[in-house]
Amino acid sequence: MNDLTDQVAIVTGASRGIGRAIALLLALQGAKVVAVARSAEELEELNAKTHGLAIPADVSAEEDAQHIINETLSQYGRLDILVCNAGVGSFNLLENFEAAEWDRIFDINVKGTFLLCKAAVPHFKAQGRGHIVGIASDVAKRTFEHGTVYGASKYAQDAMLGSLRKELRPHGVKVSTIYPGLVDTYFNDSKPGAADSEKTHLRPSDIAQAVRYILEAPPHVVVDELMIHPMTQEW
């Protein structure tokens, strides 16, 4: 297995939910965690447990994305892992969506992934190794009512990561995508711990364990895509 001790890992959307669970687990495995989110207060609380680096930032802003990479390299001298987890969602009939909501969802889910990867890829290629893990969604593989905008963003993110996987493979850089089903988080203004959520939803720690599984795979093993969803979820 690949040892995560002292590997430098950026995790976006780390202040709560899936991102927080990933950051905590990677720190537990000995990684140096760079936690990124918009909430400075929540990041500081997390950083007290991970003992890494906290960077308040908006991943959809190009200068912020480059700042995240620059600060990581300045602090640790290298970057081994990039987990693109930051994401937002909203569900409605297509005609009820405002263009501004389309922009918000695509800015975080698609543009944010693009900008972080764009800033990190030259470093990964130069060192001949690295691992990008994108947290997509099972809706990148299916469609459903009220999911026109969110689903479109996840299809776009999935296509981008899939193409990037082929671009970077000759350079020794891995790109993996995880497709979670329903997860008990704050997503779409939900509150964790809702009635029966333990029976119908995955836990953030389930996704964190999936990330760990991918990252700890031996160097010659490549996990391109990993679907994870509760057995009760209907397709």
UniProtKB/TrEMBL annotation:
Taxonomically, the superkingdom here is Bacteria
Keywords noted in UniProt: Oxidoreductase
**UniProt-recorded Gene Ontology molecular function terms:** oxidoreductase activity, acting on the CH-OH group of donors, NAD or NADP as acceptor
Q: Which CDD domains match?
A: SDR_c
Q: Name one Pfam family in it.
A: adh_short
On whether Oxidoreductase is a keyword of this UniProt record, the answer is yes
Q: Which PANTHER family match?
A: DEHYDROGENASE/REDUCTASE SDR FAMILY MEMBER 11, DEHYDROGENASE_REDUCTASE SDR FAMILY MEMBER 11
**Similarity section:** Belongs to the short-chain dehydrogenases/reductases (SDR) family.
The protein's name in its UniProt record = NADP-dependent 3-hydroxy acid dehydrogenase YdfG
Q: Which organism is it from?
A: Hymenobacter mucosus
